[in-house]
Amino acid sequence: MPDIDPDKHRLLVHGMVKRPLIFTVDALMRYPMVSRIHFLECAGNSQLLYQPTPPTLTAGQTHGLVSCNEWTGVPLRLLLEEAGVERGASWILAEGADAAAMSRSIPMAKAMDDAMLALFQNGERLRRRTGTPCACSCRGGRAT
């Protein structure tokens, strides 16, 4: 589980932007929020398939880290627009701050469409086991 102090955590938006920005969790809580029900697949799915020999596991053991929840958070588009995404930027890289250091590339069109920076799950603040203090959520996408 992530060992992240929400009071010390910072979200950095940088790269092909006019204004690199750093957000605290408190700052994110002041943005307009949306709620949606999303199916999510954990970024850890399929990792067992990259072993030297094929695993003798069920599909549920290799791809079973999935869930469907109500997520509430800030539309990622708002943060990207505030940073001033440059025209040539076609992908974003979402990197986790947990010990696993998971990352996922997301097409900019998807990030600007329905991606959100989730702060709540099923009406409660995110818990440690689900990615506190925030997680990226896209319809049919992966949790990061």
Describe this protein with a few key phrases.
single chain, 144 residues, alpha+beta, six-stranded mixed β-sheet, two-stranded antiparallel ribbon, 4 helices, globular, disordered C terminus
Question: What's this entry about, in short?
Answer:
This protein is of the alpha+beta class and 144 residues long.
Protein architecture, described:
With 144 residues, this protein is α+β, with helices and mostly antiparallel strands. It has 4 helices and 10 strands. The chain has helices at residues 25-28, 59-63, 76-83, 108-113; strands at residues 10-13, 21-24, 34-42, 66-75, 91-95, 103-107, 116-121, 124-125, 135-137, 142-143. Strands 3, 4, 7, 8, 9 and 10 form a 6-stranded mixed sheet that branches. Strands 1-2 form a two-stranded antiparallel ribbon. The relative contact order is 0.25.
Topology, element by element:
Blueprint lengths: L9 E4 L7 E4 H4 L5 E9 L16 H5 L2 E10 H8 L7 E5 L7 E5 H6 L2 E6 L2 E2 L9 E3 L4 E2 L1
Parallel strand pairs: 3-10
Antiparallel strand pairs: 1-2, 3-4, 4-7, 5-6, 7-8, 7-9
The main sheet comes to: 6 strands, mixed
Instruction: Spell out the helices and strands N to C.
Output: EEHEHEHEEHEEEE
Radius of gyration: 16 Å
Shape: globular
State the end-to-end distance.
13 Å
Helix content: 10-25%
Strand proportion: 25-35%
Structural class: alpha+beta
Q: Roughly what is the average pLDDT, rounded to an integer?
A: 83
Strands, total number: 10
Low-confidence stretches: 137-144
Number of helices: 4
